[in-house]
Write a structure and sequence with these properties.
heterodimer, A: 114 residues, mainly alpha, 3 helices, flat, B: 250 residues, alpha+beta, Alpha-Beta Plaits, 2 domains, five-stranded antiparallel beta sheet, 9 strands, elongated
Chain lengths: 114, 250
């Protein structure tokens, strides 16, 4: 962007630098599968989708708790299931050496996936 | 020879003037830019051999430079980078088939500039403030859980997190509402994306009358003064990239 296109800027320089780096990293932050790391790339893709679905399920479950439509037993089972799912995800992330950031794809103009 | 299309132009019947202006601008890869006309619209094109060039960032930036130069004197609808057709005849056919849609869009952007506005906050700092507010409204655990177990405690923590996320989103929505209300005095067309990332709470584009440019900048400046915790990045003027809405009839 040419300098004269910036009409007003109160963003600290380090945040601009970070934002530029984020844009430049957008391509590399996408699923990056090559013949050498196909299993890792595939694991990242699969875990990204699982994490997205897990978070959606979690949101829906919390809404149901708030809605007060669940029995005591159902709440117990829901809590246990969600906790186990989260623990399992943590295990899988460790196995494939992935971080939360790795599972939050930057979708360019659409923003971050999660 | 293939043709790359840069922009649709309103010619107001002055095709000679459009010709003169367009031919003085250099196309991408050093090509000669020229205009084709149909009634009151024109189109800027140049020769392009797609097999000879690799689409690159540099080429895209040069393409944007051409559109930028065109928009300095003419009302234009930017065309997506990489729109290549086989001949002038096909370009003319495109103009004829979509004449009304092009005219309508050109009228919409006539005498207007596009501006981009990003509003950024420090998520950790701002959400912490919201968190203390949310946490002060104590959740009555007994309302949701009749006993305290490891499972219900886990759900309670999730419930708190969920409340915080909702509160952050609500806070952002109120901010965007306030910004929109404030800018309504300039009466721009606008498009928003909210929470593009944790830190970019608003990514907006505005179509503003050319003669309202100073007022628009002043309004953003005033907003900045009112919100110490928000950072503003205003850019422009740009060709109306975000306000062209045409479904091309092929």
């Amino acid at each position: 962007m040419s300098e004269n296109k910036i009409l007003l800027n109160s963003v600290p320089a380090d945040e601009i630098k970070e934002a530029i780096e984020n844009i430049e990293n957008t391509v590399t932050s996408r699923i990056n599968a090559t013949p050498d790391n196909a299993d890792h790339g595939l694991a990242q893709l699969v875990l990204t989708l699982i994490e997205l679905i897990r978070k959606l399920v979690e949101k829906q479950a919390i809404r149901r708790v708030e809605g007060g439509s669940l029995t005591e037993d159902e709440i117990e089972r829901l809590g246990e299931t969600l906790m186990k799912l989260e623990n399992k995800m943590e295990e899988l992330k460790k196995i494939f050496n992935l971080t939360d950031e790795d599972l939050n794809l930057n979708l360019g103009p659409l923003g971050d996936l999660m | 020879m293939e043709k790359i299309i840069y922009a649709i132009i309103a010619n107001a019947g002055k095709t000679e003037q459009v010709n003169d202006y367009v031919t003085n601008i250099r196309g991408i890869t050093g090509s000669n830019l020229y205009a084709l006309h149909f009634n009151e619209i024109s189109v800027a094109v140049s020769d392009f051999q797609s097999s000879k060039f690799i689409i690159s960032k540099e080429l895209a930036i040069d393409f944007a430079r051409v559109i930028e130069e065109l928009s300095q004197q003419l009302t234009v609808l930017p065309i997506r980078f990489g729109t290549v057709v086989k001949s002038d005849e096909i370009v003319k056919q495109l103009l004829t088939d979509n004449y009304n849609a092009f005219r309508e869009n050109l009228l919409k952007v006539e005498n207007k500039h596009e501006f981009g506005l990003k509003v950024i906050w420090d998520y950790d700092k701002c959400s912490e403030k919201i968190r203390s507010k949310v946490e002060s409204e104590e959740i009555n655990a007994g309302k949701y859980f009749s006993k305290s177990t490891i499972n219900t405690n886990y759900l309670l923590e999730k419930l708190k997190k969920h409340r915080l996320e909702d509160a952050v989103l609500k806070h952002v929505e109120l901010l965007i509402e306030e910004i929109s209300r404030f800018l309504a005095q300039i009466n721009p067309d606008c498009k928003f994306k909210k929470m593009l990332s944790q830190n970019i709470i608003l990514d907006g584009v505005f179509l503003v009358e050319k003669n309202m440019k100073s007022e628009f900048i002043e309004a953003i400046e005033a907003l900045k003064q009112q919100h110490d915790d928000l950072h503003f990045l205003l850019t422009g003027p740009w060709p109306p990239y975000s306000f062209v809405e045409i479904q091309i009839d092929k």
